Amino acid sequence: MKLNLFSKLVFATLLAFLINSFVYLSFGSIYSSKILNYAEFQQQFGSGIYQHRILSGYLLIWIYEFLSTLNIDYSIFKLKFFDADAEPKMYLSFFLLNTFFLILSSAMMVLITETKNFVATSSEKLLMIAVAVFATAFSQFVIVPYDISSYFFLLLFFLSLLRYLEKNEVSNLIILVLMMAVSTLNRESSALSLALAGTLLYSEFGLKKETLIPVAVLGITFILTYFGMRLMNGSFTTNDGNLLFQNFSQPKNILGLLFWAVFFVLPLMLTKDKKAFNNIIVFHLLSIPYIAMCFYAGILYETRLYIPLFLTSLFLSRTDTKKFQ
Fold first, then answer.
1. What is the pTM of this model?
2. What is the mean pLDDT of residues 116-130?
3. Radius of gyration for the chain, computed over Cα atoms and rounded to the nearest angstrom
4. What are phi and psi of 216, to 5 degrees?
């Protein structure tokens, strides 16, 4: 059955809304229960590395304050919390923010699969989108304000990069620069967009000026935004401590390592050809700074850390760079 673009967009957005609604409204969050309180959230996300991830933090507080103006009976949601201090209003704010961005992310997935560079049948495209949505929603046993929005910015950058590769116009590069700046204001994992740009530009042009100049411009944009936020905040914090030993010794984190391995292999098994396979490998090599920080300062049990790598690899697996020529 052949579906038009509108039908695919409706399906993908409904899927994202439904899955996220069940995840948030039908399961209790043990892992993130402490920050489901306005004061605790402000204390944690207003210091350390978190204070530099400003965009989605502001959006979450805006939603929370907007909900405060409404006379909502939160008992209708029948929410159950593991922490007595948890606020239904804060939890609902997380739900609205992350569901909104998951819906936008699913729309970006559809648009990426509908480009002429994406080689797959209509059924394969829908299945890949479904896998991506389910994997993303599953990772939200860790609730934060910036992850899902960062996936949206990464996918939007992916789509815009495909358009830049098709037409190497300055206007398209300017759009990529603006996206890099905005996504870095949201989360420093925007560096993965730089790795993606390096991967596809190198695959298309090799080590020529057509690759080096755009990557340099995007890299400078990332650095200026990254350090600019730290100068404004008067803090150059890059991590909240060394967790390397725990990541290789604690059972939960070893389970997280297994998640990384399985979801690294899956896109490789779906690749259309050797070039797509190599692009995924190159993307991971260029993403080593992000990966290293995940192992050093992240908690590998939090599967969300691998999701941006997985989403990018999944759509790289069927992207045909030969069609740019």
1. 0.95
2. 95
3. 20
4. -65, -45
